[in-house]
């Protein structure tokens, strides 16, 4: 088993939780499994109606929430220019503004190599939930790491909106509490107090991406805060360079 690391950042993201097209197009507060698998399938050149989703069944996804973003609602119309008896359709589309997530994808080595190759040279360009939401660079942080979840906790630079004081973080120990969403319980640490965990069920496991037959099943997530070294935050003005340096470490290895 090994993994890769994706950094999902951009002006806007939208991770819809409902498959039906409704007047209100919502967004989850984190990247959904359905959206991430859709991104992988698109990178591999697999169309909606051809997608064999069993090939992604064994992926384990861990999300680190660097910045949760701010919710934004856009009033959107479609169909302008129709006759008067056919008014334009309207929707309210929800987005996350200025959010940043880092995703650890763990799977068999062969699967990780396949996905990394596809994400490096995607058939269809990746986007953050909607085609208008283009990801920032660097997008694919690492193509291959032995333990991507440990990398999230110990090595991947942390994106913050600005410097934070010791009091606002509530810590004097050199660590920062950061939100994680895990598909399995968080690792136990006998030297510290047990971490509070919020167990949630989400309906975002894709069964079919077919245009007129989308369907999903549920999975269980463990939402918690884990300590991350304060050194990973660093000065905000150096973030991009630190991310580039981290991504290039793999090339020089």
TrEMBL record:
Annotated keywords: Antiviral defense
Single GO BP term: defense response to virus
Protein name stated in the entry: CRISPR-associated Cas5e family protein
Region called Disordered, residue ranges: 150-172
Source organism (scientific name): Streptomyces gancidicus BKS 13-15
Name of one Pfam family that matches: Cas_Cas5d
Xref: InterPro entries: CRISPR-assoc_prot_Cas5, CRISPR-assoc_prot_Cas5_N, CRISPR-assoc_prot_CasD
Gene Ontology molecular-function annotations: RNA binding
């Amino acid at each position: 088993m090994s993994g890769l690391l994706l950094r999902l950042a951009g002006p806007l993201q939208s991770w819809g939780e409902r498959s039906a097209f409704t007047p209100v197009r919502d967004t989850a507060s984190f990247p959904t499994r359905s959206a991430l698998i859709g991104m992988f399938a698109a990178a591999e050149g697999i169309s909606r109606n051809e997608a064999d989703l069993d090939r992604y069944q064994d992926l384990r996804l861990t999300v680190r929430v660097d910045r949760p973003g701010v919710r934004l609602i856009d009033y959107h119309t479609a169909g302008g220019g129709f006759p008067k008896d056919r008014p334009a359709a309207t929707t309210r589309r929800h987005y996350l503004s200025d959010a940043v997530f880092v995703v650890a994808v763990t799977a068999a080595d062969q699967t990780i190599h396949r996905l990394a190759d596809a994400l490096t040279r995607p058939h269809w360009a990746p986007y953050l939930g909607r085609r208008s939401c283009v990801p920032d660079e660097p997008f694919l942080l690492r193509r291959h790491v032995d333990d991507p979840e440990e990398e999230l906790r110990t090595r991947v630079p942390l994106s913050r909106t600005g410097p934070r004081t010791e009091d606002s973080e509530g810590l004097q120990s050199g660590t920062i509490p950061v939100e994680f969403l895990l598909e399995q319980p968080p690792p136990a640490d006998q030297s510290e107090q047990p971490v509070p965990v919020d167990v949630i069920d989400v309906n975002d496991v894709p069964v079919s991406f077919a245009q007129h037959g989308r369907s999903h099943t549920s999975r269980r997530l463990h939402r918690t805060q884990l300590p991350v070294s304060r050194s990973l935050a660093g000065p905000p003005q150096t973030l991009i360079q630190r991310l580039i340096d981290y991504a290039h470490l793999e090339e020089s290895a």
